[in-house]
Amino acid sequence: MNCSEDPRQNLDKAVARIEEAAKLGAHIVCTPELFRTPYFCQVPQHANFELAEPIPGPTTKTLSKLAREHSMVIIAGLFESRAPGLFHNTAAVIDADGKLLGRYRKMHILDDARTYEAFYFTPGDLGFHSFATKHGILGVLIGWDQWYPEAARITALTGAQILFCPTAVGGDPSEKNGEQQQSAWQVILRSHAIANGIYVAATNRVGYEPLPTIHYKPAFREGQGIEFWGQSLIADPIGRVLSKASATEEELLITEINLNKIVVQRTHWPYLRDRRVDAYSDIGKRVID
User: What architecture does CATH give domain 7-276?
Assistant: First the structure.
């Protein structure tokens, strides 16, 4: 999706795309990260907290109705208002009967000179887990989470057959290494599929979002906005990209998968069987001195 400044417009667009996907036979739909708003994390601005909503709330109510009507699982990336002053970057998981099955809260919060996510989001406190839906066992990692092998591994160990990665990933249009960054992003997603013998599906934004107009000193924020990469993709358990969306245009990406391939892949490349769980205690350390 390309996300406008109008949350209602973004929701209406998502609803229309979900209905289109249902007509084409889709069983599971995943939106990009924070799909109802522009990527407001480009700047630290208190007014943006007004964009948050509770879960359950108005968006999940709308999507639950859709899920129930079409017997479809929906994963929605939302800005969650949990309590006064407490906000999360969250994916709501709605089962095919319309029930809010649960939520995943983004665990890794990126904070640098161009992405002020720590200003907005409290790190997730629900851990890495999976959701047993009518159409399969799903796991979710959001944005920055998708770069961490540990996160994908633990999610797979909880039983996930498909790892969904709603994201908002792109780069400064002036940067010269955009293709290298895009390649790295696709490689890490494919590596999660290979190392865990699961399907991986990443959904991204597309298009350019300029730096919002704010009243801070110009030196406070550098850059020329974000050009989102698009290129949402679905990889199979051996890491092959089954389908990939446009880098510049909005697109509904639908792919048929076979969950039986997970068993085949894991018995031929038995990474989980051969793990030396007795030798990995140091993984819990920040660094090994």
Answer: 4-Layer Sandwich (3.60)
